[in-house]
């Protein structure tokens, strides 16, 4: 889990460098949310369960099997990008092999699709589980409520995980969320749990229970992982205009990666030598991926129509 968190963070940091060098047009970051993402995805069976991640879920897709190379090929819009052949925005994940269903840009549309996939699992008598994720603002739209209701009526094998990172671009949680997100599950007739989203083991535990419950055919669970977006919304906004530096610094002290690293060191699971070795290994993998993606060919402009029209 620690390795996947680190891999997601270093790939993300590399993405910002590529953006500031003028090579990557747009970055949307997972920094700060790695514990929620890796802790949840670690419970899934890649290629068996279905996943509807949202644009920040680099930690989820990397836990399922995407590599820094896949990520950076997508970021730079190259033909070899396994998500879309360089045709989608970065963060719009897709993999037939890993059962990651292609993402649409409107917030929240993944939830009814996820409930539908869970209904298909149930109708076929299969034991697959669906994980669907989004930010706290995605719970303000109708799609989320419709999906929650459908999942509740039919006891569908779906886990909704809301990564509550306090902001929706510039809009703070207090102007976005009425009451409690986790508490809303009660109205749809299934459990809702709030967890510390910066504690990877807490999220792992909550998701383990939710996934097991879904696999047993007992129905959905809502997990609200409380976390914080450490970067601006994307590479295109200036967060100094809507939040205080002190607030970010306070959350940086709760960085999920340093926190888990400390835990592993204290419990003797990892020693400093192993930690440094792992760090070097991850950095080398990301560096190689970056060079590879930069040198990879772009898609042909004609390929932009593939899968869109039957005939160009
Ligand atoms: C229906 C819709 N409205 C607005 C947008 C523009 N938009 C993109 S991301 C975003 C913020 C979403 O915030 P949240 O769900 O909290 O996720 P976060 O980005 O904080 O992780 C908005 C408003 C959109 N993509 N779709
Ligand atoms: Mg948010």
UniProtKB/TrEMBL annotation:
Record's keyword annotation contains Mitochondrion: no
Alphabetical UniProt keywords: Oxidoreductase, Thiamine pyrophosphate
GO biological process: branched-chain amino acid catabolic process
Domain of life where this protein originates: Bacteria
Positions of the Dehydrogenase E1 component domain: 2-301
EC number(s) stated in the UniProt entry for this protein: 1.2.4.4
Cofactors that this protein relies on: thiamine diphosphate
Catalyzed chemical reaction(s): N(6)-[(R)-lipoyl]-L-lysyl-[protein] + 3-methyl-2-oxobutanoate + H(+) = N(6)-[(R)-S(8)-2-methylpropanoyldihydrolipoyl]-L-lysyl-[protein] + CO2
GO molecular function: branched-chain 2-oxo acid dehydrogenase activity; magnesium ion binding
Main EC class the enzyme belongs to: oxidoreductase
Keyword Oxidoreductase in record: yes
Function: The branched-chain alpha-keto dehydrogenase complex catalyzes the overall conversion of alpha-keto acids to acyl-CoA and CO(2). It contains multiple copies of three enzymatic components: branched-chain alpha-keto acid decarboxylase (E1), lipoamide acyltransferase (E2) and lipoamide dehydrogenase (E3).
PANTHER family assigned to the protein according to its UniProt record, in alphabetical order: 2-OXOISOVALERATE DEHYDROGENASE SUBUNIT ALPHA, MITOCHONDRIAL
Family to which this protein belongs: Belongs to the BCKDHA family.
Protein name per the record: 2-oxoisovalerate dehydrogenase subunit alpha
Organism: Rubrobacter tropicus
